[in-house]
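Form 7-S
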Amino acid sequence: MLQYALEVSGGADELAVTCLDRLNELPALQVCCRYQHPAMDCFDGPRLRKSAVPDLDYQQQVTDALQACEPAYTAVAPQDYLEWLEGHLGYPIGLTSLGPAWTHKVTRSRVSRQRLAT
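Output:
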């Protein structure tokens, strides 16, 4: 859904990923990277189709289709999550948060994370 949100909103310069401290509480990290519909493939490959024009009827069809979908998960090692997310989405992560205070926020070096080609 994040990939679809980035497409329909026109993209982003960078992403902020919060609650990374919670990853330590998980026995394994399972990331949903696509949805499977039981009766039809409502996606172009692993992605939702973006409407060519703003179309509320199309958005309702997307909503209806997603309600019948089942998530398909991919296992990602917690230590590889940020790099996996950048590679999967094609956008750099500029800010991370490892806790509730402002002191837990970390900016990532622009040199090490140039915009990825999609």
